[in-house]
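Quick start: read one record
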Amino acid sequence: MKFPPPLAQKIAFFVLFVMTLFVVLPVLFVMFLIVKNGIGAISWEFLTAMPKQGMRAGGILPAIVGTFYLVAGAILFALPLGLFAAIYLSEYSQDTWLNRAIRLAIINIAGVPSVVFGLFGFALFVSFFKFGASILSGSLTLGIMILPVIITSSREAIDAVPGAFREVSLSLGATKLQTIRHAVLPHALPGILTGTILGIGRAAGETAPILFTVAAFYLPRLPQSIFDQAMALPYHLYVLSTQVPNVDVKIRYGTAFVLLVIVLLMNLIAITIRSHFRSKKKW
């Protein structure tokens, strides 16, 4: 096996390092601007009070609560359904043209623009099932949007579990279901949580799907049930930036800062759980 000369390796590493900087630096710059311009708006009142004066004053509590409700509802819907679908595709389905077409369709659906999911959710949940513009409609729409990501990552995690684990379990007399439950899923859990992390980030930051299904322009109260409309941070930020005149710049950036922190905290919790289970892997 011939290795590249040291000079070629150094050039390759330098090019990769520069490309990494091109990706990372713009993200860090955007985060710096958000923190710099938004930290001055953060206060206890800003986080816990209702909006006032047409959202030019007060706080963003309804938007924070609405965002948590929508993300939690989307994960509660998408994670079990995506996991069951991944188990079927990996452990039970045969290698037929139909199943190959289903796998290809799942991958392609992941690239559908979010506004299309919003229109789909409006037609199905708001109009057809008569849920109206509500947390339920918004959560189901977001759940469908992140479903392909969870299915794909879960299936890859399940496929990555060594086949010897299954063979040993079956040889000891365990059923197929018991093998999946005790010999496959515990080892695939870190990969499954990776898909969940990606889904949380996308669900928390989307505007188009909730625009059609749940988001309220101005709602200075907390939702009382899953059939109520709700404010959400992404749509609230869009409204402040485009629809409400004479809004202090600090309020706009402060809202963006809170959304950024919430997404990072959700991801941090999921990553911590994933790291805990990954540390228990024996292979």
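The two ends are 28 Å apart (CA to CA).
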